[in-house]
Design a protein that fits this description.
about 325 residues; mainly alpha; ABC transporter involved in vitamin B12 uptake, BtuC
């Protein structure tokens, strides 16, 4: 019992330390950029805002929104990746690898190019529809055959569907070069230029999905032990998987609707979270949320400083981090679930 208490205290302490790191990254996102702003000036922009000061305007209307959006989207992508890896028992599962991001982007491009959709709310629903369709197709293809759903088949199905939607998107943009400029930031992934008005329409969906995911920790613990054991413990397997799938679609679709295609966070973070939290999803999920938010906000800060005064698209920064990690997982064939 004492050993268990020590482990619990260690998890709590580590979680608090990681939360402090997130706070530091959030503060750095407000202070650092093309125009460095002191911490004192940043605080004054909130306590005594002066609309005649450029530094105050930059903090309130540029850096604060992108820090908040980076935090929310990073947490959402990480939690969606964690749920996908648990549901499929595949260490390489993530929204970007399984085509969910590309499905959402394809629907956004179709809406913008062919139907002149510009409303964020409409784009959000299109992103949801694309993410849901991609997830459904991948699940069906991965379940075909006598063996049913297997990690290898679902990875192959995800890669195929991801490439399919990506090729469709590129094909549309080849015939509509003007449309390319409108959707370029969705293709590259960026938090630059985003406002809190873009987050507000999808925030209720993200918060609801996140809370539901955190409350499902115990059920997921039983699910990953095997369907037969989970059924024996009285769990409704179909309901749990359907709920997990819906959460993944909401979180991934919302993220694409706000910042575009930001990959690898859903792949990398669940493994780091399990390193700190062990195998208990009641801890893995909140750890994933904190770590995902920290990674995306930190990547955004780095993107501003690498080739200053220009910015690197944040999707490129996350790919630099996640690409080698994906290769490592694929080569080692990790079975951390």
């Amino acid at each position: 019992m004492k050993v268990a208490n020590v482990f619990q205290q260690k998890k709590v302490t580590t979680f608090i330390l990681l939360s402090l790191l997130l706070v530091m990254a959030f503060a750095s996102s407000i202070i650092f950029g093309q125009t460095p702003i002191s911490a004192e000036e940043a605080v004054r922009s909130f306590t005594s805002f002066d609309q005649n000061l450029t530094s105050h305007i930059v903090v309130r209307y540029d850096r604060l929104p992108r820090a908040v959006i980076g935090t929310v989207v990073g947490a959402g992508l990480a939690v969606s990746g964690t749920l996908m890896q648990a549901m499929t028992r595949n260490p390489m599962a993530s929204p970007s690898i399984f085509g969910i991001n590309n499905g959402a982007i394809f629907f956004i491009v179709v809406g913008m190019v062919f139907f002149s959709v510009s409303s964020l709310v409409s784009l959000m629903w299109l992103a949801f529809a694309g993410a849901a369709l991609a997830a459904l197709i991948v699940y069906i293809l991965g379940s075909l055959g006598r063996d049913g759903l297997t990690p290898v088949k679902i990875v192959l199905a995800g890669a195929a569907i991801s490439a399919l939607f990506q090729s469709y998107t590129q094909g549309i943009l080849v015939f509509d070069e003007a449309g390319l400029q409108d959707v370029l930031f969705w293709l590259a992934g960026s938090v630059s230029g985003r406002t809190l008005d873009m987050l507000i329409p999808v925030l209720p969906f993200i918060v609801t999905a996140m809370i539901t995911a955190l409350l499902m920790g115990r059920a997921i613990n039983l699910l990953v032990t095997g369907d037969d054991i989970a059924k024996g413990m009285g769990q409704n397997i179909l309901l749990i998987k359907a709920a997990m799938g819906a959460i993944v679609v909401v979180l991934a679709g919302s993220s694409v609707a706000i910042v575009g295609a930001v990959g690898f966070i859903g792949l990398v973070i669940p493994h780091i979270a399990r390193f700190f939290a062990g195998t208990d999803y009641r801890w893995i999920l909140p750890y994933s949320a904190i770590l995902g938010a920290f990674l995306l906000v930190g990547a955004d800060v780095a993107a501003r400083l690498v080739i200053r005064p220009q910015e690197v698209p944040i999707g490129v920064m996350t790919a630099i981090i996640g690409g080698p990690f994906f290769i490592y997982i694929a080569r080692r064939g990790l079975k951390s679930l």
